[in-house]
Amino acid sequence: MRRFVTIFLLIAAGLLPEAGSCAGNEAESALRAELERSLDQGLPGITVALATRQGVVWMGSAGYANIETHAPAHAGYLYGIGSITKVFVACVIQQLADEGRLDLDATARDILGDAVVGDIPNAGQATLRQLLDHTSGIPTWEFDADWIRRGRGATLLTERPWRKDEPLDYIRHGRHPATNAPGAAYAYSNSNYTILGLVIEKVTGHEAVREIHERVLAPLGLTDIRMEGFEPVDAARIPARYHYNTADFRRDAGLHPSFRPVARGLIDVSASNLSTEWTAGGLMATARDLAVFARALRDGALVGPQGMQRMLAFIPTRDADDPGSEVGQGLFRERLEGATLIGEDGGVLGFGAVMGWLEQDDLVIVVMTNVGSMHAGEAAYYPLKLVKSARFLRAARRLADSLSPQAARLPVSGPAAPQSPAH
Fold it and tell me: pLDDT (tens digit, 9 = 90+) per residue, 129-174?
């Protein structure tokens, strides 16, 4: 029997216009088919939002929020967005720089002092610019063997939220060397954005989550983006969290006593929380609010022209696992089939997500799922694999064009990426 799939088209005043044309119905059916194929790849549930200059024009969900109770996935759930959190942090940092309150050529040690980062490799040499684009050489706590087991696996802390700077303890005292000299190479590091969160708090005197709300979310009227572990989150709005129960995950992370095996090679990891990630990956969001945020960022409504120029100053990552990808200050540029996507993807325990906009079209794409793939091996399926599918991309573009044809044919507003990236 074909698995239960539910798609919600939310039609509200000015938000989601009806798709009345034959072409629109065909494109919607094609996109629904791609969501169902993603379930065949192992996703328990998936939610997608598409936005153009006219707003969020389509939202749809497939599969289950809870595969044991058969509660359907839908667009009202809050999903963990992982490293997409870093884009919000980068926006705040760019705003502070444009206000003259922060020098991007300063180092973490200049701002936070030796007592906070003095024993972290490169923290006294790498600039904030290099933290933003992951060329700092500061090692990431995410791949420390002890942290993996304590942050996502067998010895997971479930009895209390993590301290904001606690993950940095896993790269202190010579546990890991610098990956490279500052500015010499790209090496993705969660540590960069934990430190940037501390910088925000030092410079503003406020909690980083407060600055994200006041500077980014409140101006857009967004209320469905929350930092788990550091502000209230309605547990009833969070789907069951699953993770791929692979040999790689069992070897590297191990199974916590609370992780329950469920159907289709998954474990239920709902006892976990995202306080382990904080400003490196702790935000939760609905697909709609994340799409509104991405559209506003693209169109220059959150960060000024100079800040956006810095965010869009892409350089090659030279990442063997992702050839052709480029990194800016908080954003990435990914090559897709006949298009390029600017944004970020995220993966944490229990969740995966992609957020970005196409350079060639007036189209923002958000994809979210309630299964995590971190430490699960290359075969694990995650949202970026779906977005890179030519069939998915073709259906999404066609559907957006049918729902907002004028917007799709107009040039995208907002700042353009520099032709010659300056570092």
Answer: 999 999 999 999 999 999 999 999 999 988 889 999 999 999 999 9
**Residues 233 and 343 sit within 8 Å (Cβ to Cβ):** no
Q: Which residues contact 349 (CB under 8 A, 6 or more apart)?
A: 151, 152, 241, 243, 269, 272, 274, 276, 372, 374
**Could you tell me the residue range of the domain that residue 198 belongs to?**
79-383
Residue 282 has pLDDT above 70, yes or no: yes
Number of domains in the chain: 1
What DSSP character marks residue 215?
Answer: I
How far apart, in whole angstroms, are the C-alpha atoms of residue 183 and residue 396? 37
Over range 2-29, report the average pLDDT.
Answer: 49
CB count, 10 Å around CB of 205? Answer: 8
CA angle 417, 293, 400 (to 5 degrees): 80
So what's the pLDDT on residue 88? 98
Task: Please indicate, yes or no, if residue 323 is contained in any of the structural domains.
Answer: yes
Residue 16 has a pLDDT of: 42
Q: How many CB atoms lie within 10 A of CB 41?
A: 13
Q: Tell me if 59 is assigned to some domain.
A: no
Instruction: Write the secondary structure of 160-200 as one string of H (helix), E (strand) and C (coil).
Output: CCCCCCHHHHHHCCCCCCCCCCCCCCCCCCHHHHHHHHHHH
Q: DSSP state, 314?
A: -
Identify whether 331 is part of a domain: yes
CATH code of the domain containing 300? 3.40.710.10
- In this predicted model, what pLDDT tens digit does every residue of 251-271 receive, in sequence order? 999 999 999 999 889 999 999
- Compute the distance between CA of residue 20 and CA of residue 22 in angstroms, rounded to an integer: 7
Within 218-258, residue ranges assigned H as helices are 218-220, 247-252
CA distance 347 to 281: 8
Structure tokens at 394: 């073709």
Under 8 Å between Cβ of 348 and 82: yes
Nearest alpha carbon to residue 101 among 194, 190, 205: 205
